[in-house]
């Protein structure tokens, strides 16, 4: 197992955002975290990333606690997009790649490859704020994967994208998976998860109400699984 979340709880004062959550994500798999707004998905991600400390429980990568001083293991596409609007696309990505310890000579061809793949090469020298929301989201995705992380966390990666861009992003995600990246992504849309994931967990008020292999869950719950994810 590459990512293990063991009996993890996160409390904010009296409120419990994540409640004794246990999940395991095998290496190279794509894992779907489902749940309505406020179910605890983002809080779980922020704990995996080391941005929040669990109140209780442990998170491990390949059997060890995650060493956050090595910032290269994880890539993160946050739900709230966090680009610098005044920077040009290429400057922005170059800056983020450098932050992750990449060499300029390695970053530039990688940026080029991704911009080409997402059909936005002409925007390399435009300021981020000049791009549409969908194109900004693609830049944010590139920022998450530029350093080739082993573990990729995608918080609602398809929200706000038109169908063409959803397909582009899905193909990119599938390619990363084929290359061995372990991917955890959240969605409140069952169809994306069904298409991409072998294992899922449905969170409700911080608790895993259903977890396991999607194929098995569908066999056991049938269409009810669509009902379970709502709150
Ligand atoms: P969404 O899709 O709306 O982001 P989510 O499943 O990601 O939902 P979280 O953002 O993890 O849910 O929130 C889980 C619960 O924890 C919510 O009730 C939220 O209000 C609460 N919460 C999250 N962050 C904090 C915080 N910093 N302080 C207090 N409560 C918080």
From TrEMBL:
Keywords, alphabetical: ATP-binding, Nucleotide-binding, Transport
One term of GO molecular function: ATP hydrolysis activity
ABC transporter domain mapped to chain residues: 3-230
Family under the similarity heading: Belongs to the ABC transporter superfamily.
Protein name, per record: ABC transporter (ATP-binding protein) (Na+ exclusion)
Top-level taxonomy: Bacteria, Bacillati, Bacillota, Bacilli, Bacillales
Included stretch of the parent chain: 1 to 231 of 299
């Amino acid at each position: 197992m590459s990512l293990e979340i063991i009996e993890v709880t996160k409390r904010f004062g009296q409120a419990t955002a994540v409640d004794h959550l246990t999940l395991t994500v095998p290496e190279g798999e794509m894992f779907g975290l489902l749940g309505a707004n406020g179910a605890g998905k983002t809080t779980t991600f922020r704990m995996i990333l080391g941005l929040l400390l669990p109140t209780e429980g442990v998170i491990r990568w390949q059997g060890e606690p995650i060493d956050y001083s090595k910032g290269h293991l994880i890539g993160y596409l946050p739900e709230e997009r966090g680009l610098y609007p005044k920077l040009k696309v290429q400057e922005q990505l170059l800056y983020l790649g450098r932050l992750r310890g990449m060499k300029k000579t390695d970053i530039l061809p990688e940026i080029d490859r991704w911009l080409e793949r997402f059909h936005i090469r002409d925007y390399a020298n435009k300021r981020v704020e000049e791009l549409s929301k969908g194109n900004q989201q693609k830049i944010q995705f590139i920022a998450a994967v530029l350093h080739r992380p082993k573990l990729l966390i995608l918080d609602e990666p398809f929200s706000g994208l038109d169908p063409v861009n959803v397909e582009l992003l899905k193909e990119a995600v599938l390619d990363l998976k084929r290359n061995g990246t372990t991917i955890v992504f959240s969605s409140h849309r069952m169809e994306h998860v069904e298409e991409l994931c072998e294992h899922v967990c449905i969170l409700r008020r911080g608790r895993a109400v259903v977890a396991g292999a999607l194929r098995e869950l569908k066999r056991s719950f049938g269409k009810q699984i669509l009902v379970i994810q709502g709150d």
